[in-house]
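Extended Data, panel c. Modelled sequence:
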Amino acid sequence: MSASRWRVLTAYLPGIASVVNSFQSPEVQLSVYQSLMKALDAKTEAEEAQAVAKSRMSSRGKLATDRESASNGHDGELVYDIVEGESIHAMMGKN
């Protein structure tokens, strides 16, 4: 089970239990529980899909910004500004 799934379950389970326990029939309780869990899964999947889409849109915006900041050198090659940050070579040893 993923950490995000665990957080969602611990947040929603008390409310789900309260609703399920409000019914007397074990068959109805099971049906309500299954319906609520299915709805929770659908909600979680939709939120994750939305987060992924938002992340992709953000990445596309960054790529467009990077392209706009590039300029043509005297021989027609693209010239980029040097950006401060960690070198990819320094990250290789962090595995």
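Residues 3-94 form one domain. This feature is highlighted in the accompanying rendering.
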